[in-house]
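INFO batch 0412 | record 1 of 1 | parsing
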Amino acid sequence: MIDTRTRGVFVISATPFAEDGSLDLESAARLTEFYLEKGASGLTVLGMMGEAAKLTPEESLAFLDTVLRVVAGRVPVVVGVSAPGIVALGALAKQAMERGAAGVMVAPTPNLRTDQQIEAYYALVCETLGPDVPVVLQDFPLALGVQFSVDCLVRIFAAHPQIVMLKHEDWPGLAKLGRLRALEAEGRAPHVSILVGNGGLFLPQEMARGADGAMTGYAYPEMLVQVVEGMTAGNRDAVEDVFDAHLPLIRLETQPGLGLAFRKQVLFRRGAIASPFVRRPGPKLDAEDMAELDRTLGRLDRRLAELAE
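INFO prediction complete | emitting tokens
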């Protein structure tokens, strides 16, 4: 199970599809092994960048079963269970935990506007799931339109100890992250694990502000692992040089909409999946996009070679 001490890199898995749009479970197994070989501390499946909303309930469980079979208990697996309705959310969470998930991730429904509404929603979530299900709270206002204040988060964490992790994706959010850790140090907020997203775009800075690692799906997860381990060991300058080399590709991957197509194309080129197909409705790269990716990957290879000398 995940808990408030969880650290490292939880890679958000892509969901592989064949060229005809069908779910590719063979590639799902290969991709899972790829993530583990690159040093993932854990995996997160059925997230937003995993195209979870495009899967049928049967496909979601088939994909989860494949990932859990390949992982075989080597690392914890978090399952995204966010849904418009609380019944569907609770049902998927129950099935995930029964299959061996280490916890579930819940994003707020986009209609929440006030702190009172947000706190009431997570109270309902925790009541529905029961106290034994570890929960990751996803704070992603750019995508969901829900704004969590620091005080609101602190009240939620204090009221619901089963919420053991914050997936921090506010942007700009460094001040929020620093404030949460400062309140902890003052004894005014409970400790939770904080893993950061946004493609890893601010990972070194977020680690410096007190993050415990990353939960994102960048197609070079070994870089995320290197940065988290290096920052933890105090080697910031060295790992930031490597991180900076990856920034142009991270930038391509974090584009709204089109970024997923770039990510899947890179995973395809790295041999992790058999097809870069994004299930419809979804983006598709054109010739200019592919040329830009070629150039970006070439520059990345050259820069990494220079750093290795």
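INFO post-check: The chain has a mean pLDDT of 97.
INFO record closed
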